[in-house]
Automatic annotation (TrEMBL):
It comes from the Bacteria. This is Co-chaperone DjlA N-terminal domain-containing protein. It comes from Simiduia agarivorans (strain DSM 21679 / JCM 13881 / BCRC 17597 / SA1).
Length: 75
């Protein structure tokens, strides 16, 4: 059910300032990892969220987090 919480949190993050920052991404990942297992639904939500990030908004910290996600989950 974390995927629902993740979706709701992402809406809050994007409506806050129109962007997702590295800390907000970290909170989303923490929700997915909370129970020790990341489900396909959670990966789908993360993938959908990541697709909304504009390249010009990606900071070095965000880039590192995205790379780690890609390495870990193939996102």
């Amino acid at each position: 059910m974390a995927h629902i919480e993740m979706s709701l949190l992402s809406i809050e993050c994007f409506t806050n300032d129109g962007k997702l920052d590295a800390d907000e991404l970290g909170k989303l990942i923490a929700l997915a990892e909370r129970d020790g297992v990341i489900t396909q639904e959670e990966i789908s939500v993360l993938t959908s969220i990541i697709k909304r990030i504009k390249p010009e908004e990606v900071t070095a910290d965000m880039r590192a987090r995205l790379k780690a996600l890609g390495n870990k989950f193939g996102i």
